[in-house]
Amino acid sequence: MTTDFSTEAVATASASARPFPTNFLFGAATAAYQIEGAAHEDGRRDSIWDAFSRVPGAVINADNGDVACDHYHRYREDVALMRDLGLQTYRFSTSWSRIRPDGGAINPAGLDFYKRLVDELLDADILPWLTLYHWDLPQALQERGGWAARETADLFTEYALDVHDALGDRVKVWTTLNEPWCSSFLSYTAGIHAPGRFSIAEGMLASHHLLLGHGQVVRELRARDESLNLGITLNLTVAEPVTDAPADLDAARRIDGQFNRWFLDPIFRGSYPADIVEDIRAVDGAAVAEWEGAVSDADLAVISTPIDSLGVNYYHGELVGGTPPVVSPGGGEAPTERETASPFPSHEDIFWHDRGLPRTAMNWEIQPSGLTTLLRRVWDEYAEPAGVTLYVTENGAAFDDVRVEENGVPHVHDAARTAFLENHLAAILDAADAGVDVRGYFYWSLMDNYEWAWGYEKRFGIVRVEYDTQERVVKDSGARYREIIASRALPESP
Fold this sequence. Notes:
Blueprint: E1 17-19, E2 25-29, H1 32-35, H2 48-52, H3 71-85, E3 89-93, H4 96-99, H5 108-123, E4 127-133, H6 139-142, H7 151-167, E5 173-178, H8 180-189, H9 200-224, E6 229-235, E7 239-241, H10 246-269, H11 274-283, H12 285-294, H13 297-303, E8 309-313, E9 318-321, E10 351-352, H14 368-386, E11 389-395, E12 404-406, E13 409-411, H15 415-433, E14 438-444, E15 463-466, E16 471-474, H16 476-487, E17 489-491
Parallel strand pairs: 2-3, 2-14, 3-4, 4-5, 5-6, 6-8, 7-9, 8-11, 11-14
Antiparallel strand pairs: 1-17, 9-10, 12-13, 15-16
Helix pairs in contact: 3-5, 7-9, 8-9, 9-12, 9-13, 11-12, 14-15, 15-16
């Protein structure tokens, strides 16, 4: 049963503006490890990211989340910022390593922090949008196999129910996982993210156990309270072939299958994509055999337990082909000293091409139209038949902005990010005009933060954070977002 989050439209939109639907929510998103700090306070123990940040060459400048944005101590200030920006909802994650350190007994101090945070949000009339897992597995559980071990799905379920015990009376929106593609293949196959493993088998097993944990949690929470809005967040892309040549079409199929369908199909259809299973089998038959031994029809029934909402994270599309380009556009991963591998088990003869679009500081293409295309495809093929509503739960851009003082007042002029925000909101409206039921947008990120293997090198926030002083400065993009939220409309392009 889906909770109704309808809001009244503000009557200030001009006739020349594009209004948002009355049930559309405006928000921003963060993740626990990226902003909280207090890494070893009040009983919290190491997560896999604490351990990974200590691996030589794994993270730029050997940066870590020990302090980050110090949100653990400054959450009241940060919620006040959210209120000032006019946010209707805030997407955050709880830290497994803070709530059940080492995966063991409940840590009351850890739960108390999230109780205080939720209370502060509710007092500010901001809807808490809780994500249970945003990549910070307790390191002690990784030492027992991590997500490659089936028991982790069961332990995740126990942790989720503990969080619901504490917050279920006040939190009505629950997201199980954030971007399981990243916490499986990027983490266990490519070695790019924690725990930094290089195994096709472990990546496949991790993906399955993550999805199994998701399904178990949805079943358990549904049994407790049918009024909850339950869902999962996936990072998705649009894989386009550079030409209609067979090799190019095949490259696009394999990227779409390994990135999108590997997670969408089991959630919505109760099966993994057979073509991709065979593609991976051709690369590593032993890995597929091990994975097949772990997957059962009963598992797939759990994974496909109906959900209420799907979070779509979109940053850029992919233009791929079966032959290399004359000039490679380069990748978007952090240039770390530690060697990494491809996150795609079937990656041979797949090459990325450049289409001449502007790029962010991460070297990611800026393609707002891709978001419209993606939302329409996910809606038509997956969400609408299942009666599931869509939310854009992450969308944002890193640019190398700077703080300046004008008449003694700090400013950050980030015109590129402002344009990114406006153009992607317009893309969402284009999707809505085409009949897609998309009900919200969460900018990533509320504030600059720890950007995983990039450390503190890249800034995504609409609020700048000066890490040495913890000063917060609302950027021009944040001020523009506040105006859009207040009017609930986008100005028409001239």
